[in-house]
Amino acid sequence: MWQAEVRVDLDAIRDNVAILRAGTTAEVMAVVKGDGYGHGMLPSARAALAGGATWLGVATLDEGLALRRGGLSDVPVLAWLHSPGMPLHDGVAAGIDLSAGSPHLVGELVAAARRAERTARVHLKIDTGLARGGATPAEWPVMLEDAAKAQADGDLEVVGVWSHFVAADSPGHETIDRQLAAFADALATAERFGIIPRYRHIANSAATLTRPDAHYDLVRPGIAVYGLSPVEGETFGLRPAMTARARVAQTKRVPAGQGVSYGHTYVTERETTLALVPLGYADGVPRAGSNAGPVQLGGKRRTVAGRVCMDQIVLDVGDDPVVAGDVATLFGPGDDGGPTADDWAAVVGTINYEIVTRFGSSRVPRVYDGTAGEPA
Ligand SMILES: *Cc1c(COP(=O)(O)O)cnc(C)c1O
């Protein structure tokens, strides 16, 4: 018997990746950082591979090493976020592709390659406008020169050149074309240094779904893998993989005028039934969902009554025959008119990415549905 759980539909992940694959001639790198956006990194990775992904993308070296330890020993993996002094040689030894977004990092990768006694597989990152990771236009030729020399010395192999979008989730945003032009320039400059990478990549989910001209050789969808749309108002046929739900722990009749939960920010209008749902902000429910978050219970959509607590929320179910043990769904695929991660994101002022990633917490057991990618 379970009290609260996060269900993850592996077949949905597989099918979402298959949709992405069908829409491109590029290879698909499924991004599984952030513990697979809260869905569990390894099962999500395996399901994505079953759907046709041929690469996996993570932010940190540790995430990449965890994929290797988890038995994904041959799949190309790219890890892109490194602070100075990280044991990059472990990544090189594990055959993990590493990003370099500054000349300094090229130097570190050369040292890592020598220490690992193995050629480092490197993706050079150009900042085309996001002003996050990546070389500035001024650093780019310096980095290319260093990388070309290291490649000639056998320390590095430049496998990729890449960048990341500012606002591909707003189709038509003026930055998109500007970044694509800057990326094309950066590739032309690389060629002048003799660097012609096998993989050129810039597309996240939004660009994968809306800008085929940005696909190049490899696309890097994350959120779409999990069935959530990066573009407001469009689903692209994707199916949300995560459902967060809990069994009502207790119900009680209370009179009109009863204040509910901390601070009594909700007060009952009439005699009513309150239902206590055992999920709170320690589990991922945003506290900003106080008096706002939608929950499906007893076949109807309710709104959290009063404050979200660390471990629980309260729903006012009126005179409906809700009893302890009934299942309350915070979000899921929305099949039965129930709320989705998008609905939660809208009411708390965030993005669907943050809603599902928050539910990756360890207290709530994660249960997998479907068999995609799992050993037979
Ligand atoms: C997270 C991330 C992605 C995936 O982005 P989505 O919007 O989830 O598709 C791709 N590339 C990089 C560099 C990222 O950090």
From TrEMBL:
CC cofactor: pyridoxal 5'-phosphate
EC number: 5.1.1.1
Gene Ontology CC: cytosol
Keyword Transcription in record: no
Domain Alanine racemase C-terminal: 241-369
Top-rank EC class of the record's enzyme: isomerase
Keyword field contains RNA-binding: no
Active site residues per record: 33 (proton acceptor), 262 (proton acceptor)
One BP term from GO: peptidoglycan biosynthetic process
Alphabetized Pfam families for the sequence: Ala_racemase_C (PF00842), Ala_racemase_N (PF01168)
Binding residue positions for substrate: 132, 310
GO MF, one annotated term: pyridoxal phosphate binding
Catalytic activity as recorded in UniProt: L-alanine = D-alanine
Record's keyword terms, sorted: Isomerase, Pyridoxal phosphate
Pathway annotation from the record: Amino-acid biosynthesis; D-alanine biosynthesis; D-alanine from L-alanine: step 1/1
Post-translational modification N6-(pyridoxal phosphate)lysine, affected residues: 33
General function of this protein: Catalyzes the interconversion of L-alanine and D-alanine. May also act on other amino acids.
Family, as annotated: Belongs to the alanine racemase family.
HAMAP family linked: Ala_racemase
Annotated protein name in UniProt: Alanine racemase
Species assigned in the record: Paractinoplanes rishiriensis
Lineage of origin: Bacteria, Bacillati, Actinomycetota, Actinomycetes, Micromonosporales
